[in-house]
Structures are given as C-alpha cells and as structure tokens.
Amino acid sequence: MSAAGGWRARGIPVHLVTGLLGSGKTTLVQALLATPSAERWAVLVNEFGERGFDGEWLRRQHAGVAELAGGCMGCSGAVALPVTLNRLLRQTQPTRVLVEASGAGHPAEILALLRGTHYRGILQPAPTLCVVDPQQLRPESAVYRQQLAVAEVLVGSRADGWSAAEHARFEALAASRPQARAVKFDGAKASLDWLQGPVQPLPAWLPSGAEAVWQQALQWRASGGLALAQLAALQATLPGVRIKGEVAAAEGGHWQLNSTGNLQAPQWRPGPGAGQVQLLGTRAPSLAAWLAAGWTLI
After folding, report:
1. Are the CB atoms for 143 and 211 separated by under 8 Å?
2. Which spans of this chain does the record mark as coiled coil (predicted)?
3. Terminus of the chain with fewer CB atoms < 10 Å: N or C?
4. 255 with 266: CB under 8 angstroms?
5. Strand, coil or helix: what is 287?
6. What is the Cα–Cα distance from 106 to 143, expressed in whole angstroms?
7. Using one digit for the tens of pLDDT, what is the confidence trace for 112-129?
C-alpha cells in the first residue's frame, strides 16, 4: 500500500485491544497515546450504537483516529473494516496501529482479518491486550473467554482502587493464563513496554457464540443541567449497564459519562456537551428514573 510522497505501508505493528464493556479499553488507549513516543500512531475504534463517543473523545486527544460504529467489527463490520483501516493508513501513515474492539466483539475474527493475506507484509502482528476489571469478571461469557484466550497481555484496570479481594482475583486470573503477561493499570500511566513481546498463533479452538447486547440512546431535553449527585443517583439505577455520553452540568460546562453502573464518577469538562448518552447491557433495565429526570428515548 503506497501513498503520495513515496510512503509505503510495510511491517506496521498492529495491536488489538479487547475487554468487556466498561472494562477500561478507551482509558488504556488514551494513556498509551499520552505516553511520550517518537512513533506515529493510528487508532481504529469499534463501538455499538449509531454514535460513538469513544472515537470522539480520542480524536480530541489524537488526530489519527477512525471509527467503525454500529456493531461488531468482526461480524457485521467485517466488510467495512478493511475499507476504514485502509483509509486510516493512507491518511495517517502510521508506524504503529491500535485497534480497539467492541466489548461484545469477536476478537479472534478481527485478528484473523488483521493477520490475513490482505494485510500480509503491510501489518505486523503485535501483542493483543485484554483489559480486565476484577470487579466485573464474567467467566460464563464465551466472548470474555475468547478475549482471554487470544491475549498476550492481561491489563488489570483501575488497579489503584482495588480491594485485597480484587488483587487476589486478578492474580488468580493471571495464574490461569501463564502464557500471557499480566500488568496492572491505574488509569493514568501506561507503559510502552506492554506493547512489546512475542505473538502466539491463534488457538486452534476458541469459545464461540455471539453476545446479545441491548442498547438504547437517550437525549437530554430538560432545561438546565444536572448536578453530580443527580447523575450518581441515575447511574445507580442501572447496575451493570455501560453508560457513555455527555450532558450539561448544573455548575456550567458538561459531564462526560463513561462508566459501568456507578463504578466511575462522571468527569467535568468545560464547554457545551452533547446532551446524549448511549446505554449498553446484556438485558433491558427500567429507565423510569431517567425518563422522570428529563431524558427521552431516541
């Protein structure tokens, strides 16, 4: 693959970043992008829903970001993936690529695409990172088990807030996957060393089966903004649901929501917000409290 100016895509390391919904994948990617490096990176993000907030937030930090929204990159997006990735390579001419998969995606199918004949000689397989949060391990999920099976690096997220039980849970998980390197991530600082190391062939057998994902978009219609206490109360009504979006803050500026249930407090940001959130989960919850607070379904 060549471009104007003589640049040729050849042997570009490509990393897949996997993990459950809300495990902290985008936070890890943001931290890696913020780590000083002489390399030129490109990021491809896959999200459920018509609007992808992760891609928007990453673009504010790093120009070389493309987004594949609307479903699983390895199934419904399999045709769109090469088109989007090829455009990203031409536009950014990177020396390293990160691919952030949806938390409900099929990592083995994505890796098969990235390592297939279409990209042979163009992309160089590099370690796959699986982000895990000891507060929400799901061994019953075939997608989760597949994420673990293809990982060269297990990244324990939100490690700065772990309890003794959560430390033990992560250590036990790491011991069960001795072929993968285990590292702990505090949500702020990441190491480029995590991107180094050998790559294993894809396992001959992997757990299969799609994971049904419920999704719903909500729009903020009420006048004024929401206070932090109000947001915390609303998030507490949706345990286990992935919540992403932006809404005006009562104090001015806007809140950036990026959590699973009430695991993570919203972040205040200056300037106007989108006034919209995307909810994802394994089952439809009651949205009565959100609707009563001034949100409407879209």
Report:
1. yes
2. none
3. C
4. yes
5. coil
6. 6
7. 889 988 899 999 999 999
